[in-house]
Recover the amino acids of this structure.
C-alpha cells in the first residue's frame, strides 16, 4: 500500500485506499460508469471517518455521518483493467458539518481521473437531526490534517 | 405514468420517469445509499438524451454524451418501500456541452429528496474529443424545453 | 399493477413486482448484467418475506432471513428499454429453511427471461444461528401459497 | 499478489484475484449483499476468459462469453473491513459451453465464504447464437488447467 505515495496528486491526503477496477464497473460507453467513482469516494470517506472516531460513535450512540451534498468532476475516463488510488482529506470543519475532498488517481494513466467534494454532516440517527461535531472527532481531524480548523 | 403530474416540483421537467425503491438500494444507515440517486439521475438523463436525438447519433456515428461533472444535494433521506419520480431538464446549452438539472421526488414524502446538476458534453467516442452540439439536437432540446438557448 | 396477471408464467406466484430496466443495468455485452436479476430476485423475495411476517420479526427480534444458496438460469437477454415482472413463490418449507422460486418476465419479449431458486434460512442475527421457522410465518406462507407444507 | 497462495482452498485455481470489501457492499443485514459475490465471480471469470483468448475474440469477431446459468452457496457472511481472494477454474468443456467453478476466500476469516458454478456459453453476438469453442481457446484452457478435456 506504499506505492500510492508516488502519486504527487495524493501527497496531501491522509487517507488513500487502493481498489482494482472490475470489468463490470464499466457501462455501454466502454468506461467506468459514473456511479462507481461515487462508491469509491464513499469507501475512502468511510475509512477517514473511522480514523477520526465517527464510526465508533455510530456503533455506540447512533451518531454518525450523513452526506449533505456532493460534487464530482470527471476529468479522464477510467477503463478496465486498472487500479485506482482514492484519497480523502478534510479541508473545512464547521459546527455540525465538514468539507471533504476526494481525488481518484488512475494507476495506468498516472493521473487524477476524478475529483470531488463532499459535505458530511454529523447526524443523530435516533433524533434524526444534526449535532455539533464532538471535540474528540474535531481534534482527530486536526491531527490527521496536521492543522487547526478555527 | 400521469400521476407524477401531481408533483409541482416536477412541472417544468419535460422528462419524468418513475422507479420503485428496491430494498437493496439501502445501506447500513437504513436509507437509500448515495450512489443510487446518481443512477436514477442517469436513467432520467438517458431518456432525455434519447428524446433529443443523441442516443441515435451514438448508435450510428459513435457521437454521444459524456458526463463532465455532477452535483447532488441530498435534502431528505429515502427509504424502502417508496417510489421515486425523477425529472430531467436542460437549462443551458453551450457549444459542446449542456447543463441538465435533476430532481428526485419521493412519492411517500411528497417532496423533493435529491436535486442535482449534470454537465454533459457531446463527445466523439471514435476521435475521443468533444464536438459541437449538432443543430438537430439543439432544436430538439429547444422544443422539449419550449424556449431558445442563444 | 394488475397488468402482470397477463403473464401466464407468473400465474402461480403470489408475489409479483414490476421494475423498469435502467440503462445503467446493462454492461459491455449490451444486455442487462448478470448481477441485476439477482437484485430483482432479492426485491421480490423481500416483498414476500414481508407478507409472511419475517420482516416484522427482524425489526422486533433480530430474527430474519439469510440467503443460504441461489441459482439463476439466464434464458433470454434483457435489454433497455424494457420493464420486468418479477415473481416469487415458496415451494418448500423445512425446519429452519424454505425454498423460493423466482421468475423474471421481460415485458417487451412477453416471455420468461430468468428463473432461479433461493434457499432462505430463518436466522437469529443476535445468536448468529438458524432457528425454526415460527408457526405464524409458516401458516402465512401456506395461506399465500394456498397449500400446506407437511 | 502472491499471498493468496497461502489459501489451500485456492491452490487448484489458475486464476485468483484479490478485491477489498467496500463499506457500501454491505446491506441492512450488516454483511455483504448477495449481489456482490456475483460481481466478484464475474471479475475472476473475465480474467480467466481473457487468459484463454475469449476476450480477444470478442474484440475482433464479436464472439464472446455469455452466462447461461449460475449457482452460489453462501457459507459464511462477509463483513467490512476485509479483503477477498476470488478463484476461477474450469472443470468441464463441452461443444459450445464450459463449466467454471468459483471460490471466494475471506482474508480475515481465512476460509471459503462463497462457492459457485457458472456455465459459460461461447456466443456469436452478431448472429446471436452459440458457436463451438474455438480450438485455440480449448487448448489454452487445457494448458491453464494442466489437464485435457475429452
Amino acid at each position: 500500500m506504499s506505492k500510492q505515495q508516488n502519486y504527487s496528486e495524493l501527497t496531501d491526503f491522509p487517507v488513500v485506499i487502493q481498489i482494482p477496477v472490475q470489468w463490470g464497473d464499466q457501462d455501454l460507453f466502454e468506461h467506468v460508469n459514473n456511479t462507481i467513482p461515487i462508491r469509491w469516494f464513499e469507501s475512502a470517506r468511510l475509512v477517514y471517518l473511522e480514523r477520526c472516531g465517527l464510526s465508533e460513535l455510530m456503533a455506540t450512540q447512533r451518531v454518525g455521518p450523513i452526506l449533505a451534498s456532493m460534487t464530482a468532476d470527471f476529468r479522464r475516463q477510467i477503463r478496465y483493467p486498472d487500479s485506482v488510488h482514492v484519497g480523502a482529506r478534510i479541508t473545512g470543519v464547521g459546527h455540525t458539518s465538514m468539507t471533504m475532498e476526494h481525488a481518484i488517481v488512475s494507476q495506468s494513466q498516472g493521473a487524477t481521473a476524478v475529483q470531488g467534494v463532499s459535505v458530511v454532516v454529523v447526524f443523530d440517527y435516533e433524533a434524526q437531526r444534526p449535532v455539533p461535531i464532538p471535540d474528540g472527532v474535531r481534534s482527530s481531524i486536526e491531527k490527521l490534517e496536521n492543522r487547526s480548523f478555527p
Q: What stands out?
A: Helices of chain A lie at 35-51, 54-61, 135-145. The CA atoms of residues 43 and 101 of chain A lie 13 Å apart. Chain A touches chain D at residues 17-20, 22-24, 39-40, 42-43, 46 (CB under 8 Å).
